[in-house]
Design a protein that fits this description.
There is one protein chain. By secondary structure, the chain is mostly helical. It contains eight helices and five strands; from the N terminus they run αααββαβββαααα. The radius of gyration is 15 Å and the shape is globular. Helix 1 packs across helix 4. The strands form two sheets. It has a three-stranded antiparallel sheet. A hairpin with a 5-residue loop joins strand 4 and strand 5. Helices cover 52% and strands 10% of the residues.
């Protein structure tokens, strides 16, 4: 039985992960998306359900406002432009939020690796965590920290 199987089959593991979720936890979960150096759709889907199957209250949500600005809502209910925590100038001041947001994006990337259409659809289309429009806006904004872009 793999670590991920133990986590998904035992509600206490999931509860512990969600209670203590931080950038390091997201990084750890990112590494579990692979088996033998290759993306594992089963592991990806199980981890996706642990992290985002629980609802939108534990990770950052983003949207584009009327001014074409990417806005975030963090798990601790902070709301504002992504540049508030992820610009070249504010990242250090908001290190924990910045690290968490970057780790979240890296996890999303690992969940979709290997063309996992289930994860791509869930993350980008169904729940709209990261839409194509939001990604393009961030990539093209040179005010964002390089890790975000």
């Amino acid at each position: 039985e793999s670590v991920v199987e133990r986590m998904t089959n035992n509600p206490e593991y999931k509860t512990q992960i969600l209670r203590n979720i931080d950038a390091a936890t997201l990084d750890f979960l990112s590494t579990l998306c692979f088996s033998g150096g290759k993306p594992s759709k089963t592991l990806q889907n199980d981890i996706r359900e642990i992290v985002i199957g629980s609802g939108k209250d534990i990770i950052f949500n983003t949207t584009v406002d009327d001014n074409n600005q990417v806005i975030f809502k963090s798990p601790n209910r902070l709301i504002g432009p992504v540049s508030q925590i992820c610009s070249k100038w504010t990242a250090k001041k908001n290190q924990n939020d910045f690290d968490f947001f970057v780790a979240q994006l890296k996890l999303f990337s690992k969940l979709c690796k290997g063309v996992n259409f289930d994860s791509i659809n869930k993350i980008c289309t169904e729940l709209e965590y990261v839409t194509f429009e939001e990604a393009l806006l961030c990539i093209n904004d040179d005010h964002f920290h390089p890790l975000l872009r």
